[in-house]
Write a structure and sequence with these properties.
The structure is a homooctamer of 250-residue chains.
Chain A lengths: L2 H13 L4 H27 L5 E4 L5 H13 L4 E4 L3 H10 L4 E3 L4 E4 L11 E6 L5 H13 L3 E5 L7 H5 L2 H6 L2 E6 L5 H8 L4 E5 L11 H8 L6 E3 L5 H13 L2
Parallel strand pairs in A: 1-2, 5-6, 5-7, 7-8, 8-9
Antiparallel strand pairs in A: 2-4, 3-4
Chain lengths: 250, 250, 250, 250, 250, 250, 250, 250
Amino acid sequence: MTTTNIKDLLREYKRGTLSEDQVIRSLSSSMVESLGHATLDHHREMRQGFPEVIFCDGKTEGEVAEIAGRIIRHGSILLATRATKKHYAAVRRVARKARYNEIARTITANEHLVTPRGHGTILVVTAGTSDRQVAEEALETARMMGNITETLIDVGVAGIHRLLGQSRKLRDASVIIVVAGMDGALPSVVGGIVDVPVIAVPTSVGYGANFGGLAPLLTMLNSCAAGVTVVNIDNGFGAGFAASTINRKR
Amino acid sequence: MTTTNIKDLLREYKRGTLSEDQVIRSLSSSMVESLGHATLDHHREMRQGFPEVIFCDGKTEGEVAEIAGRIIRHGSILLATRATKKHYAAVRRVARKARYNEIARTITANEHLVTPRGHGTILVVTAGTSDRQVAEEALETARMMGNITETLIDVGVAGIHRLLGQSRKLRDASVIIVVAGMDGALPSVVGGIVDVPVIAVPTSVGYGANFGGLAPLLTMLNSCAAGVTVVNIDNGFGAGFAASTINRKR
Amino acid sequence: MTTTNIKDLLREYKRGTLSEDQVIRSLSSSMVESLGHATLDHHREMRQGFPEVIFCDGKTEGEVAEIAGRIIRHGSILLATRATKKHYAAVRRVARKARYNEIARTITANEHLVTPRGHGTILVVTAGTSDRQVAEEALETARMMGNITETLIDVGVAGIHRLLGQSRKLRDASVIIVVAGMDGALPSVVGGIVDVPVIAVPTSVGYGANFGGLAPLLTMLNSCAAGVTVVNIDNGFGAGFAASTINRKR
Amino acid sequence: MTTTNIKDLLREYKRGTLSEDQVIRSLSSSMVESLGHATLDHHREMRQGFPEVIFCDGKTEGEVAEIAGRIIRHGSILLATRATKKHYAAVRRVARKARYNEIARTITANEHLVTPRGHGTILVVTAGTSDRQVAEEALETARMMGNITETLIDVGVAGIHRLLGQSRKLRDASVIIVVAGMDGALPSVVGGIVDVPVIAVPTSVGYGANFGGLAPLLTMLNSCAAGVTVVNIDNGFGAGFAASTINRKR
Amino acid sequence: MTTTNIKDLLREYKRGTLSEDQVIRSLSSSMVESLGHATLDHHREMRQGFPEVIFCDGKTEGEVAEIAGRIIRHGSILLATRATKKHYAAVRRVARKARYNEIARTITANEHLVTPRGHGTILVVTAGTSDRQVAEEALETARMMGNITETLIDVGVAGIHRLLGQSRKLRDASVIIVVAGMDGALPSVVGGIVDVPVIAVPTSVGYGANFGGLAPLLTMLNSCAAGVTVVNIDNGFGAGFAASTINRKR
Amino acid sequence: MTTTNIKDLLREYKRGTLSEDQVIRSLSSSMVESLGHATLDHHREMRQGFPEVIFCDGKTEGEVAEIAGRIIRHGSILLATRATKKHYAAVRRVARKARYNEIARTITANEHLVTPRGHGTILVVTAGTSDRQVAEEALETARMMGNITETLIDVGVAGIHRLLGQSRKLRDASVIIVVAGMDGALPSVVGGIVDVPVIAVPTSVGYGANFGGLAPLLTMLNSCAAGVTVVNIDNGFGAGFAASTINRKR
Amino acid sequence: MTTTNIKDLLREYKRGTLSEDQVIRSLSSSMVESLGHATLDHHREMRQGFPEVIFCDGKTEGEVAEIAGRIIRHGSILLATRATKKHYAAVRRVARKARYNEIARTITANEHLVTPRGHGTILVVTAGTSDRQVAEEALETARMMGNITETLIDVGVAGIHRLLGQSRKLRDASVIIVVAGMDGALPSVVGGIVDVPVIAVPTSVGYGANFGGLAPLLTMLNSCAAGVTVVNIDNGFGAGFAASTINRKR
Amino acid sequence: MTTTNIKDLLREYKRGTLSEDQVIRSLSSSMVESLGHATLDHHREMRQGFPEVIFCDGKTEGEVAEIAGRIIRHGSILLATRATKKHYAAVRRVARKARYNEIARTITANEHLVTPRGHGTILVVTAGTSDRQVAEEALETARMMGNITETLIDVGVAGIHRLLGQSRKLRDASVIIVVAGMDGALPSVVGGIVDVPVIAVPTSVGYGANFGGLAPLLTMLNSCAAGVTVVNIDNGFGAGFAASTINRKR
C-alpha cells in the first residue's frame, strides 16, 4: 500500500464513502505486504553506497551479464565474486570498462563511485602464498566498500620471525583479516599480539587430513586467543564484508 | 634484561669498564629473554584497563582462588568464567566482595574499576530461553570490559514477528551478538536486517541431529547474510570479548 | 495359487484323491508366493493413475529409452528424473513428443493423461536462484501427479521482507515445499508463519563448511518450527512426491 | 498500534486536528511494531484450538510450573514434553488434575477442551519395543491435537511377516508415523506398501555404529520408498505435530 | 634355511667341524627367516586352486599386463578386478583368450582350470539395477573360485512383494550376498527370512546424504537381523571371496 | 488361521456345510493374517533348536523377567544379552537355575536343551584383555547355539609372535571371530594366515581418536586380507550368531 | 623348543639314537612354537632395561595388582598408566613402596633400577595449565625409561613472547614433546624454531567444536612446520615412549 | 638493528649526542624487529646444509621456476615436491641438470652438494605397491638431506611372512618409515618387532570406507605398538624430513 493509496483511503473516509471499520480493515489487510516494501526501502537505504554483490557460482554467463547490466545502468558499483573468465567475457559485452581480477576471481566496475567509508586500514594477512586467492577476494571486497587496505603475505607460524618482524604493520591496522590453510594456526598468534578485531578465514589449501578446510576451520574456532571470530572456508568475500562493517562504524 | 640493567651497561661502557664489543655481546645475548619481558610489558599495556580472565574449567578450586587472589591484590578487575559454586566459595575466602552469576557461571570482583570504554551499545539476542546461559556469559564479559549492554530474549525465527517487533532495538545497537541453538537460523535473519557487526554464537541446546551444537555452528558459518562472523559453540566469553574489541575502537 | 488351482485342490480332496494333510501342505507351501502376487496386484492398483518414475542416474541411455518405450506403449504417464540430454535424445527416438526440462533435468510424456488429483495448491519456495534446479524437479513431479503448483523464488531469510511481502501466497497453499542451500534457515521461518504441512529440501548449493548439503540438512532437521519434515539433499522428486501424497488425501 | 489507537487517529484526522501527512507518518512509524502484534494475533488465531507446547528440557521446575499455570488459567490445553517427574510435581502444585505419561515424558491437562480435528486415523508404527518412548510422545501430541490414533508395535523388518500380517491397519490409516532405531529400515518397507503420507522418526536406540541415531537418520533420508519424509532423531513431538497438520487439512 | 642347509649343518656337527653352540646359533639366527618361507609355502598350499587376484586400481597398464602374463605362464587362473578397458587391452597382448566383463570390470583367463569347490549355491541379491556393477564383481569372484551362482536382481524393500515372491530362491541358497545402496535396508529383510549366512555389501549408489555409501554401510552394521556381516563399500570382490570361503568349508 | 482352523474348514466343506466359494473366500480373506502365523511357524521351525534371544538394553527388569518366564515355561533355551545384575535378580525369581555371566553380561537357562549343531570349532581371538567382555558375549552365544568353542586371548599384533606361536589353533578352527579395539589390526593378520571364514568385531576399547570404536571399525572394513567380514562395534552376540550360522551349515 | 631341548636333540643325533631325518622333522615341527618363545626372548632382550607398562584402563584393581606383583617379584621396573586411586591402593598391598603421581595418574616402583639411557634432555612443553595431566604422563614415562626431562609450562601461542623468552631451553633439548589442546597451534610454532625432533600430543582440553581433541589433532597433522609427528589424543605415554626411543639411539 | 647501528648508537651516546633514555628507547623500539632478523639468521644457520623445499601444489609453473632459479643461483640443494611434468619443464629452463622423479613427483638439483648427515640407515617400508608414490617422496627427501636409505616394498600384514622374512633389515635400520593405505595395520606390527623410532604415513590408497585415508590415519593413531608417531595422509615429505631430523641427531 503506497502513500497515495493511504491518502485516497483517508479522503474517502473523510467524505464518508468509507466507514471507520472499512478503513481499519483495509489498513490491516495490507500491513504485511506494506512491511515488505517498507523494509525493502529501508534495507536499500541502509546499505546505500555499498556495492550490490553478484555471487556467480551456479549462475550462467547470461544471468550474470544481465544482473551486471542492470546494476551498471542504475549507476551503482559492480562487484561480482567467484566469476570465471567466461562470466567476465559476458559482462564485458554490457560493461566495456569492467575489470577482472584473475586471482580474486572478481569482476568490478564503476570504481569511481566508491567513496572512502572506512576510518582505518584493513590489513589482510596470509599464512602461505597459496592462500592469496582468498585474500584477494577479501581485498577487492574491502576496497569496493571504500576501505584502505594493506597486506602481509606468507607469514605463517612455522617461521614466526617473519610475522614478528612486521609487528608494527599489525598494530597499525583497524581490523585484521587472517587467511590460513593447513594448520590454521596464524590467527591465534596474531590475535595474541594485537588488540584490534581479528577475522579468521580458513582455506581449503592443504592435503590429507585437511579435509577441504575442516582442519583450519576447527583450529580457528578453538583459537586460544580471545576475540577471534571466524567465517566460512574460503569465504574471502564474507571476511571483507564483515571487516568493512566493523571499520565503517568508527 | 630490565631498563636498569641496560642503564648499568651503558654507564660502564661510558666509564670504559666495558668495550663496545662487550656491550653489543651483552645486549645480543639477552635479546630473546628481554623480548619476553618487553613484549610482556607491552602486552599488558596494550590491553590496559581490560580485565584479566580466568578460565576455571579444568582448574582446581585452590588454583582459581590463588590466581584470583593475586589479581585482586594487584588492584585489577576480576573475571572468571565457567566457574562452579565450589570455585566461588574458594574465591570468596580471598575476595569477600566477589560476586557469582549463577546463570553465566562467572565470578567477578572490583567492578568499581571498570571504566566505560565502549562507544555504543552491545546487544545480545537469543533465540530461546535455553540459550541464556551463554548469553549471560557474553553479557558479563562485555560489561566487565566497560560496555553498555542490552538484551532481546527468546526471539527465534519460528515466530519471526517477535524479532521484527523489536527492530528498533536491533538498529540502535553498535554490535550485535546472536546466540542460538537448534537450527541456528537467527543470525541470518538479524544479519539481513541490520548493518552493524553481527557475531553469531552457536549453542549446544537441542537434541538428536544437533550433535552438540554442530548443526547451528554449520548453519552460522553458511549464513546467507554477508558479514556474520562466528565463534566456538557455547563461547559466550569469546563473543563478548570480540564485541568489546569492535565497540572500543570507535 | 489362483482361485482355479484352489478349486481343483478342493475337488480332489472331496473326491478323496488328496488327503487333508496334502491339501494343507499344498496351501501352506504356496502361501508366500501367493502373497507376492497378491501384494503386487494391490500395489499396482494402489498407485493407479500415478506416473511410474525412471531414476536415470547410473542407467545407460539404452536402458532409459527401453523402459520409457515400454511405459509409453502401455499408455502410461512418463516421468524420468536426473536425465541428461543424451538420455533425452535416446528417449526421443522411442517417444517423439517427449519433453525435456533442462533445469529440472526431467523427461516427460503423455501429459494429457494427467488428471487433477490434488485438492489444493502445492507451493514451492526457494531461498536463492541457485536452488531452482531442485525446485523444478519438485514442480515437474507434482504437476505430473496431477497437482496445481505455484512458486515463490529467491526469498531467502537474509532479506526477510521478500518473504513477508508474499505471506498471502504462503497461507493460500495446501502444502509448501521449501528448497534452500547455504544455511538452510528458510523452512524454520516459513514453518513459523503457516499452519499447512511444510516439506524442507536441503540443497548442495554453497561452499566450504556447507559440506555438500550437510549444513542445511542439519539446520532443517533441527528446525525450531514444529511440523517441518525433511527429505534427502537435492531430492526435489521426493519432496514433490510426498507433497502429492499429502495433497491428494483431502 | 491497536485498533483503538487507529480509531483515535482517524477521528482526529476527521476533526482536522491531524493533517493527512501526520496520519500517514504515524501509521508508517508504527508499522513494524504493529506487525509484531498483528502477526502475533493472527498467529494465535491461526493455531486456535491447538495446544500450546512447553519443551521442558533445560527449563527449571519453577519455570515450567509458571508457564503451565498461565496456560491453564487462560483455559487452554496443556502439553509439556520432555518433562521429568520433578517437573510434574511442580506443575501439580498449580494444576491438580494434570496427568503425567511416564513413558512419553509428557504432562497434559484440560484434555476435555480437545476437539476432534483430524479427519482420519494417525497410525504410529514402531520397529522395536525400545522405540516406544518416542512413539508415546508422538501419540500424546497427536491426541492432544484432536486426532484419533492407532498403534502397531514391534513390527521391525527382521520379521517382515509381523508387519505384513497387519497390512489392513496400515492401509486404513490417514497418516503413518514410523519410529525406528538400529538400522531404521522400517519406513522404507512401510512406504512401499501404502500410499498415505509416511513420517519417519529415527531413534537413538542401538549401540556401536548407531552413533546416537545417525545410522537410522541416514537410512531414512536415503529411503528408496518415494514420499517418506523425516524428522529429527527421537523427535516424537515433531512427528505428531506434522502428522496432525497433514490430517487436519482434509 | 632349507632342509639341505640343515643337513649340512648336522653333518658338520657330527664331524666335529661345528660345536654344539655354533649349530644352535646358526639355527636360531635363521629361524625368523625360515618361518617366512615356511609360512609362505603353507600359505600357497592353503590357497591352492584359488585364483590369485590382481587389484588393478592404481596400477599402470604395463604392470597389470606383466603380472597377468606371469600368472598365465604358471598355468594359474587369472582374476583381475577394477580393470579398465585399457588394462584389458594390455593384458590381451600377453593373454589372447582373456575375457573382459565390462559391468564387473574384471579380466579373467584360464577359466577351464576352475574346479567346482563350493558345496551349494551362492546367491547374489541386489536392491536396484544400479547395484549390479558391484554384484557382477561378486559373481565373477565366486565363479572363478569354483562356485555355482544365482542372482535375484532389483528386489529392493520399497516393493517387498518382489522379494517375497522369490523366497524359495532365497531359502535354497547356501550363502547369500546382498548388495544395496541408498537406504541399505535389504539385508535386514533377507536376514530375517533365511537361516543361511548373509553378507551385506553397501554401495555408493545414491545421492545427497548417502555420503558415498556411508548411509547403507551404517544401516547394515546396525541391522536388526542377527547374523548379517558386512564388507567395505562397493567391495563385491571381498563379498565373493568371503562367500566362497564359507561355501567351500561344507 | 491355524492348521486346526483349516482342517475344520475342509471338513465342513466335505460335509457340504460350506460351499466351494465360501471355503475359497475364507482362505483368501485370512491369507495375509495367516501368512503372519505361517511365516511365524515356519520361522520358528527354520530356526528350530536355536535359542530365542532377549536384548535387555532399554528393557525394564520386569519386562525381561516376564519374557524370560514365558520362554522357560515353553521349555526353550534362554539367552539374554546386555543384562545387568538387576535384570538377573528379576529373572532368578522366575527361573531359579538361571546363570549369570558377569563378564559377558548374559543370562542363560535350560542349557541341558542345547544340542550339538556345529560341525567344527568356533575360535574367538582377542587382541587385548580389555576386549574379553565382547569376546565372552560371542562365546556364550556360540555355545548356547550348540557349538564347541575355543579362545586365544591377548594376541594383539604389537607382539606378533604371540599369535604366530598359536598358528595351529588358528588353522584348526572352522570359523574365527577376531575381537579387537584400538587399531583393530588383528583381523588383517589372522585373515592372511588362515583360509576359514573370519568375522571381525571392533570394540570401543581405546581412547582419543578411537572415537568409540570408529577407528577399529574402519580398519576392519578396509582390511587388506580378503574375506574378512565385519559386525557392529561391541556386537559379540552378532558375531557369535553369524559364526553359528556358518558353522552349522557344514 | 628351548636351547636345552635342541642340545638333547643334537646329542641323541650324534649318538645315533636319532636319524638325520628325525632331527630335521623335530626341528621343523617345533618351529612356529619355537619362534613364539624365541621372538619372545629376543623381544624381551631387545627392550631390556625398559620398564614393562600396565595400561590400567578397563582392568580391575585385582588384575592390576596381580600383574604389578609379578613384575616387582621379577625385580623389574614398574610403570602403570591411567591408574585410579583404587588401583594404587590395590598395588600398595603387593608393593609397599609404590609411588602414585596423582596428576599423571601413574603408579611406579623400583625406580632405583632405572639406569640413564638417554643422551640428551627430553623437553615437555605445554600450551596451557590444563594440559599438564597429559604432560605429566609423558614425563613419568620418559623418566622411568632413563631420561633426563625438563618442562616449559603454559606457553601457548596466544602469548607468543612467553615461548620466545624461553628459546634457549627449546634449543638445548634433544627431543621436544609439545602438548596442546584447544587450537593445537603450539607444535607448529615450536617446530619452526628448533631443528630437533618434535612430537605433538593433542589433548581433549577445550569445549564446543574441540570435539574431544579432534580439532588440535587435525591442526597438528596439518602442521606447516616440517618434521612434526603426532600421537593419539591425550596419549602422554605414547609421546614419552617415542621420545625415549629417539633419545636412546644417539 | 644491525651491529653497525648499535655501534653508532653507543658512540653517539658516549659523545653525549644521545641521552641514556634516548638510547634505551631506540633499543627497545627496534627489539621486536631485531628479533625478526636475529631469528631469521639463526633459523637459516640452524638449517644450514639442509635443502630448502618448494611445495609446488597450487603454485604456477612460472613461480616454481623462479624460486628454483634463485635457489640454484645461490648454490643450494634443490628439492621441489608435488611437482607436475609441467613444473619440471619450466624448472629445466633455469636448471638444465634438474632431475625429475616421476613416481615421487619431485624435482631435484645440485645433488653433489648433499653431504652425509645421517648416522644410520632410514628404512622405508610399504604395505602395497600402490603406496610407493608416497614412499618415493619420503625417500627423495631423506636422500637429499644426506641420509642412506633402504626400502622394503609390498610387505602388508595380510601376508605377515613377507615382513618376518625380512626382519634383519628392519632391525638394522636407525629410523623406519612405514607407509600404508587400506587398513593401515602395518606400523603396529613393525612397531612391535623393532625398538627404533617408527614414523607411520597413512595413504589415501583404498576405496569405500577408506574415506580418503581417514581409515589408516585413525588406525595408526590408535596403534597398539607404543612409540609409533604419525604424519598427515600421503605426507611422504613430512615423514622423510622427520626421519632425517631423528637420524641426524645421533
